[in-house]
Amino acid sequence: MKILVPVKRVVDYNVKVRAKSDESGPDLSNAKMAINPFCEIAIEEAVRIKEAGNADEVIAVSVGDSSSQEQLRTCLALGADRAILVETEESVEPLGVAKALKEVVSKESPDLIILGKQAIDGDANQTGQMLAAMLDLPQGTFASEVEIQDGIVQVTREIDGGLQTLSLTMPAIITTDLRLNEPRYASLPNIMKAKKKPLETLSSSDLGLDLSPRQNTLKVAPPPERAAGIMVEDIEQLVDKLKNEAKVIT
Amino acid sequence: MSILVIAEHDNNELKVATLNTVAAAKEIGGDIDILVAGMDCETVADSASQIPGVGNVLLANKETYKNSLAENIGNLIVELSEGYSHIMAPATTNGKNFMPRVAAKLDISQISDISAVISNDTFERPIYAGNCIATVQSTDTIKAITVRTTGFDACESSGGSASINSIDNDTNAGVSSFVKEEIAESDRPELTAAEVVISGGRGMQNGDNFSLLNGIADKLGAAIGASRAAVDSGFVPNDMQVGQTGKIVAPDLYIAVGISGAIQHLAGMKDSKVIVAINKDEEAPIFSVADYGLVADLFEALPELEAKL
What we know:
The complex is a heterodimer.
Chain A: E1 2-7, E2 9-11, E3 18-19, E4 26-27, E5 33-35, H1 37-51, E6 57-64, H2 69-78, E7 82-87, H3 94-108, E8 112-116, H4 127-134, E9 139-149, E10 152-159, E11 162-169, E12 172-176, H5 188-194, E13 199-203, E14 215-221, E15 230-231, H6 235-244
Parallel strand pairs in A: 1-6, 1-8, 6-7, 7-13, 8-12, 9-12
Antiparallel strand pairs in A: 2-5, 3-4, 9-10, 10-11
Chain B: E1 2-6, H1 16-28, E2 31-38, H2 42-49, E3 54-61, H3 70-80, E4 86-90, H4 93-105, E5 111-114, E6 116-117, E7 122-127, E8 132-138, E9 143-147, E10 163-166, E11 176-183, E12 196-200, H5 214-220, E13 223-226, H6 228-232, E14 253-257, H7 263-269, E15 274-279, E16 292-295, H8 298-308
Parallel strand pairs in B: 1-2, 1-4, 2-3, 3-10, 4-9, 5-9, 12-13, 12-14, 14-15, 15-16
Antiparallel strand pairs in B: 6-7, 7-8
Helix pairs in contact in B: 3-4
């Protein structure tokens, strides 16, 4: 069995991103970049399935500019066997990413595709579901547990108010939620080994894809500021303020 | 303009998120239809028909739609999409699940999680955990949209008289099936609909200590939430998570207890009307968004707060 794991290079989750002063976009100059946290969970899950003897190969794939090779190397160090970069200089919307991934899927024919539920830059939460629809595959989004048995994958999903379990016919698509697993750290020997693993580069134009955006970003502004608050001395004063000033309790 | 809103429901009850979504649709303007897809969900269709401003309720009442499987619902919406300029659903786990399938099938670029309507093709949406607000204009002929429910006050739920039209489409994709569901039973309001939310963070130290929040929640009629740190530490289940990757809440009163205020958490609650932070670290970033801050040991402050309410 083959598992494909699409990953995204994003600003590190500890970086507080601000809008540029001319409101033309987010200010990402010199920002530390990293693999999207949910994608890291996806790689970890795929590697665990392989380690449990349920898969033979884990392939990491990314759609982005050449710097995404860095994140693909991270995936290789975490246990992926090989990597594919669909190289494109323009920024691609989830719809375009899903179209590029569809081409990779038709070349590789994976049995399982595991993605992060959302990337922490655009917060769109679309790519996995879009890819599933384009391929007419079933999806188990926001997964907190994955179990594989004879051509079926059982996925427990984090939904509003609780958990839902679905049974999907493979090939299938899974998107990861926070609690699916805790990703490992790459060891130094594995980081060294990763440098020798194959990383193939395809260009989006070779694939004959039109990935041009359908949305124009007119501006990117900071969110409205909250007025400065006050510090209270004790619970008594707090309760008094909530009752008589904010009037939110009675 | 002709807008199709997908109702959020559990086959028994129409959820408030639907009213927030209709409110967003009304800001776009035009005819509004509501799709109720489920099984034995006539009462839901009935409630939807009472929403003022709704023209038609489309009722797809079939086993195929009982558990809102994304494959089946997605295909149904695609079949119904002709003639609509906008297809909208609340950005609940359900809406997030099926809407991108609809967009992909129609070859359109979805606009996720809109927090404001600027015009019929231009919307605001938070990016980077709400640290930036992007204004985006869609060039697609049909707009596929999910709505951040806290961005729009719920519209009226009664007074309307839409017609209910049963539709017979059966779009069973046959590739997925429902196994089971475990929905937490609680007498407390739902997190995203509560007027008061009290949340605990890593400072709670363990899951048992979350019971310190119960008495206060009971007195205030509050829902109980948690930070990602508390969920990551295994104190409480993930469906209590408030934040960028959890639930987005905007209650009248939000009380953050033992929560440092990481970017990811602030993204989920900073639109609350009044924010109270209780933390023993006076440098905690949560105080920068709090209307009322109290530097205190929560194990002393919480029992005292419960007693004073």
